[in-house]
Amino acid sequence: MPGRIRVVFALGQPRADVAGNLFHMNGGFDIRLPEKAGSKAVEWARRATEARERALVEADEFGDMIIGDYVDTYVNLTYKLIASHRWASAFCQDKSDVFLFIDDDYEFNAKNVLNYLNSLTKFERRQLLSGSLMTWRRVIRPFKDASRNKWAVTRYEVPWSRFPPFAWGTATFVGADVLRELVVAEAYTRFLWLDDAFMGFVAAKLPHLHFQSMKGFYLESTNNQKALITHIPFSRFRLICLEGEELSAAS
Fold first, then answer.
1. What sign does the dihedral 85-88-94-95 (CA atoms) show?
2. Of the residues 52, 79, 198, 233, which has the fewest C-beta atoms closer than 10 A?
């Protein structure tokens, strides 16, 4: 990787029950992951032992995985988010100015990302909280059809009709100084399984922080050579540490 970019993969424990792509939520409704995501969840639930063994072998070989103590499923993404934030804040705080948290089915253009970060001062990098802002923030209530409940929450979980501002969880830049504050605020924010919406509530507790919309985030496959982030299926949630000390030499 150019410019001293460090890539870390974050994952939890494989789901081992037969439900696979079906989740019984505390609010009394079900979520069934449709299409490819659902079929993969069913497949790997049947191969949980193999998945765990392969992850441990890869972790031992490359030393680039954070393996958390939670079941790695769609409805536990907030646990993965919190664990990744705490790990980065604890172990990378003095090594990186900014972090890029990115989903498993997206990738980043290292040159474009570094060029963008090089255009910022060290202070600006450490204060980043940016991504592709969610414009549709209406709260969705559960349907009887479990396959339509991928983003549904009950009134008990979120009593309001709209979420606070938040960025898509697909890819988010978080500066080191901001991350330190988020980690503390997350500990005092009511858990919500929708990880990106949860981040919106966390940021709302810190009124001096605001999500910034960034150009160059492309949430669909693209050949645009200026893109920072593109949608290309990959394998795992990733945490990228971008070392501020090396950025000026990276471009």
1. negative
2. 233
Burial class for 197, CB neighbours closer than 10 Å (0-12, 13-18, 19+): buried
Distance CA 209, CA 203 (A): 6
Distance CA 179, CA 192 (A): 19
Q: Are 13 and 120 in contact (CB under 8 A)?
A: no
**What is the greatest pairwise CA distance in the chain?**
55
| CA-based nearest residue to 180, from 67, 97, 65 | 97
Q: pTM here?
A: 0.88
Domain coordinates in residue numbering, the chain? 4-243
State the alpha helices, DSSP H only, in the chain: 35-45, 48-62, 77-91, 110-118, 122-126, 176-186, 195-204, 244-250
For the chain, state the CA radius of gyration.
18
Query: Quick one: tokens of 80?
Result: 């993965």
> For the domain bounded by 4-243, which CATH number is listed?
3.90.550
Per-residue pLDDT 10s for the chain (251 aa) are 555 788 999 999 999 887 889 999 988 999 999 877 788 888 888 899 999 999 999 999 999 999 999 999 999 999 999 999 999 999 998 889 999 999 888 888 888 888 888 999 999 999 999 988 888 889 999 999 999 999 999 999 999 999 999 998 888 999 999 999 999 999 999 999 999 999 999 999 998 998 988 766 665 545 567 778 877 654 445 677 776 544 433 32
